[in-house]
Specification:
Mean pLDDT of chain B: 87
Shape of chain B: globular
Helix content of chain A: 25-40%
Radius of gyration of chain A: 46 Å
Oligomer: heterodimer
Shape of chain A: rod-shaped
Number of strands of chain A: 7
Order of helices and strands of chain B: EHEEHHEHEEHEHEHHHHHEHEEHEHE
Largest sheet of chain A: 7 strands, antiparallel
Number of helices of chain B: 14
Low-confidence stretches of chain A: 1-57, 110-121
Number of helices of chain A: 6
Mean pLDDT of chain A: 70
Strand order of the largest sheet of chain B: 5-6-1-7-8
Distance between the termini of chain B: 54 Å
Structural class of chain B: alpha+beta
Strand order of the largest sheet of chain A: 1-2-7-3-4-5-6
Largest sheet of chain B: 5 strands, mixed
Strand content of chain B: 15-25%
Strand content of chain A: 15-25%
Low-confidence stretches of chain B: none
Largest interface: A-B, 35 and 25 residues
Chain lengths: ~250, ~425
Amino acid sequence: MSWRNTQVQFLSSAPISLQSSNFPVPLTRGNRSSGLLKHAPLASHLDYRHNGDMKEKSPTWGGTRPGSGRKHGTGLYGEPTQTIRIPVSALSVIREFLSSRQAQHRLNQGLASAEVFHPATEPVPQALPLYAHKVPAGFPSPADDYIETTLDLNEYLVPHKATSFFVKVKGHSMTGAGIFDGDMLVVDRALEPVPGKIIVAVIDGELTVKRLAFEDGRPVLKAQNPHFKDIVLRDSQELLCWGVVTATIRKLD
Amino acid sequence: MSSIALVDCNNFYASCERAFNPKLEGKPLVVLSNNDGCVVARSNEVKALGLPMGVPWFQIEKLARRHGILAYSSNYALYGDMSARVMKLLGQFSPRQEIYSIDECFLDLAGFELWDLVAYGQKIRHRIKQGTGIPVSIGIATTKTLAKLANHVAKKQENHGGVCDFGRFSARELDDLLESIPVSEVWGVGRKLTPRLETLKIKTVSDLKKANPRWIRQQFSITLERTVAELNGLPCIELGEESANRQQIVSSRSFGRSVETLEDLREAVSSYMTRAAERLRAQHSVAGSIAVHIQASSFKPEEPRYHPSQVVPLVKPTDDTRYLTQAALQGLQHIYRPGFRYRKAGVLLMALEAKATLHPALFDDPEAEARSSRLMKVMDTINHRMGQDTLKLASSGTENSWRMRRGFKSPNYTTHWAEIPQVTA
């Protein structure tokens, strides 16, 4: 029966290593799909050997002869076997059970007889720390209970992060409102431009910062420096507000 | 009854450029892909001129200049920041949000039906436009696939004012509408399936909607069967909650010129790995495995092609730029062959897991790991404060002659102090 031979060959030629996790898998797979299980019952396989032995001896003597046949415990299962009656419906279950049990047995034998462990030729040095963690000792700080979160300027200056942008000021028309050349402004685009607010408007495609006012029902962008003129929108001109200035930031160097 | 809205930014990249440069308003505008290669975004004015998506810039440069088309290199730092702002605002309008791409997201409006959904949509549009300067279109329907189509209608048909709710349509009106839309516009149909569907006499959305689902599954796939169900108002595709952390991180770019030496490739791979590792640490993950790939010549048919890649498993998952780069360079060494003109390289971080839940191994050296974490933190902090690549590995080089061309890039208006917009006072 060739299946046995292939299995045995497989066992001995398989690279035996502790890391090879797929080692036992092909064995069980092979057992399941082997022709033996599909076509010939396990018992007849044993019988074949027995019959073969007995044909060479005299056929006229009946019964068992002491000391004949294979030694007990050396068969397929590595232990004495016994014949029992099995309901046909349970045959497949029992076979499955036996074959997996048998596979396990073979595996154990194969492993036991193989030289598995090869010491590394050049052991890798591995420094192990004596203590992995420092243990804090002493009294905990009495202030621990009173610690609050620290103050965050972002929270103060930029409450609406998603709609706020930073821009840099160039020019002197807004000095009266405390906005100087080189200042950084926080502009919130989501706020409604209402009169009195300082806004960034789009004038001729440029971003311009001015204070919004209405004079005679018409929007006026007022400069906050007497040297600069206000911007009065013409009738056809639409006021495009880019955002409302909410803070000015100036570092003192 | 479910209601799902798909919010999609109009010409997102072009709109981002306009948000900080009002002069661009009303002007034809294109955004070019990395390395100023192809057109990846077009303003409405350019679409009206009939310029297709994806054309190589060098082919149309002269024509574009004659038409006064303005071209910008892609500025992903700006688009990423603007996308985050838009998505954050949109998240305030629904308890459930699925961010689908850089410029699209689904909002679950189940239970909102008692309100006027169109008015609600207009409110969303107004808020996003005012708060960020980005115009959006909104499609509302009972399923994600229909919401996508509703969005398509909202964009194409101006009478909807940017918000289209299929719930407002009678069954008859909806059928007429779907009959006028080609099947290629359906979410998930795409270029591959369209010709096959058309040979089977499924040409419009309506045809697909009326197709026998079981037959569709036999002919195509269960995915398309679900699409048919979705077109019939049966929700099959769940609203995916946002998964904040990526399962893979890719950093890959084309070179400004072709590169032949291993030295140049090593610099490129090192710098891409630096970017990838920064993103890995930003999401508090570690990578268990990396891959590196290089690509020689794809455009010029006369040059030989070579596109190898190499996976390098790591002994222990890490987020340390040094170890990740080391592994990437090992992989590169393995696949590099002289005699090719390389155009592109990239790295991929895989087998990501949360750093906090990483199991320590028996022979770990906790002191060394703490040191590595501190070093990476210092690197990230300094690079964040003083600009990318202030601190970097020597292997990523200093000259970087291979870096890509971005000749027309706009300033990083929202992410660099030195580049914030200027206002006149």
